[in-house]
Write a structure and sequence with these properties.
The chain is mostly helical and 238 residues long. It has 2 domains: 152 residues, Helix Hairpins, CATH 1.10.287.1490; 67 residues, no CATH class. It has 4 helices and 4 strands. It has a 4-stranded mixed beta sheet with strand order 2-1-4-3. Helix 1 packs antiparallel against helix 2. The radius of gyration is 40 Å and the shape is rod-shaped. The model has no long low-confidence stretch (mean pLDDT 92).
Length: 238
Amino acid sequence: MHEWVSKLQVLQEKDLRIAKIEEQVESAPVERAKVQQFIDDAKAVTAAAKNQVVQEEKRLKDLDLQAESIRTRMRDFQTKSAMIKSNDEYRAALQQVESCARQVNELEDQQLVIMDRIEAHRGGLQKARQDQEAVEARIREMLTDLETREKNCKAQMDKLMAERAEALVGIDTELVNRYERLRLKKRHAAGDRRVLVPIRNNACDRCHMNAIAQVRMNARKGLPVSCENCGALLYWED
């Protein structure tokens, strides 16, 4: 294998590893956003459960105020009935008292139903809070892992960049520039990011298009040639 090929292979190996690390670093904000969404969702469930309790307690209080208002009216009728001398007026007052008592009983029945609902909602709220605490604990672990990964990526990146600088030594400048243009072009492309690939079965090993006879002959001679289809640097694999 020709020396320039060996040197570029070493350089490319560093660059491919660097690209993978860059992907991990670039994905960190997205992962953090997903993690935050988990917390927001858990908080939203807790808030909804709490709101159910608050709303039912408000209904219970409103019913209690209504019942107390009717009890006050009932006491007024009872007080007035003691001073009434007419039988008709007395019977009318008693009917009012009975009507008030029925209304109070109906309101108290409604209160019992709401109290049962409040108890159920409080159970739901307790579970939502427990679930939220569990999510927050897990999220803390995930964020710690993510932070550790970022630190490790930075350390690996620093090491690889130093190794890359060493790998560049001794490679023809024009060839490096050619390689760099292709590498930057493929940097954000999907799929195979290799810039330097062998000719295998008379075809480019990246796009698998046949290499013409002149390209194959020059590659055999050790000349840096390009794939006419994808632009990759080609070399003849011994």
